[in-house]
Amino acid sequence: MRLGQLLHGQPDAQAPGAIQHALAYEVLSVAVFAGRRKRTFGRLVAMAGVAPGDRVLDVGSGPGYLTALAAEAVSPGGRAVGIDPSEPMVGQARRLRGTENCSFEVGRAEALAAADGSFDVVVSSLAVHHIPDAVRGKAFREMFRVLRPGGRILLADFRPPRGRLGRVLVGATAGPGMRDNPVDRISPMLAEAGFRVESESRVGGFLHCVRARKP
Ligand SMILES: C[S@@+](CC[C@H](N)C(=O)[O-])C[C@H]1O[C@@H](n2cnc3c(N)ncnc32)[C@H](O)[C@@H]1O
């Protein structure tokens, strides 16, 4: 059995990409970023232009590391909310990182509960490839809907390995979702959802980041 399958645990019919083993994911995340987690995620918060007073939504927030950094950056006056379909993830995020201005809710990217225009910024790290292909476009339209006009979005996801060895290793451990992750489709799909794409960049060697704005 692959590591990716172990992390996912019992499949959730509504959210097949949900990760149920929250503690194992947290440990893996610390290991994968090898001491650079704060710097890498901090860069994402800075690239998203998160500022004091902002209302930030983190989609697929997992254990809430990025959400918590965003919550620090929006103080004073702002708030950060993380959503994830996995109840164990939401529970762990609340325990580890919940604060007065940093909260977590169970939810799916393709069916956001938030009201139209209720956020200034949407961020998402390492989660786009977990959203089923069939509803990914819908998820981007939902992110568009919950942003106010002029609001920003920053999506960061794993770049697929290029070399043969990397592809074999990632395919065997994480699975085809990460090995063949179509990150080049993120920008055109955001544009289809109505966003104006502002930049595409590479962060920390293995992240593909797209920054866009709702006109
Ligand atoms: C690799 S983790 C990333 C977690 C966190 N953002 C981080 O950077 O550590 C991917 C997360 O996406 C969540 N996920 C799966 N399907 C989703 C969906 N349809 N909508 C939103 N999040 C989803 C998983 O439960 C998991 O917590």
UniProtKB/TrEMBL annotation:
Annotated TM spans: none
Record flagged with keyword Methyltransferase: yes
Any GO BP annotation: methylation
Molecular function via GO: methyltransferase activity
Gene3D superfamilies for this protein: Vaccinia Virus protein VP39
InterPro entries recorded: Methyltransf_25, Methyltransf_Superfamily, SAM-dependent_MTases_sf
Name of a matching Pfam family: Methyltransf_25
Coiled-coil ranges (or none): none
Keyword Transferase among UniProt keywords: yes
Domain Methyltransferase, chain residue ranges per copy: 56-151
Keywords for this protein: Methyltransferase, Transferase
Superkingdom in the source lineage: Bacteria
Protein name: Methyltransferase domain-containing protein
Organism from which the protein derives: Amycolatopsis nalaikhensis
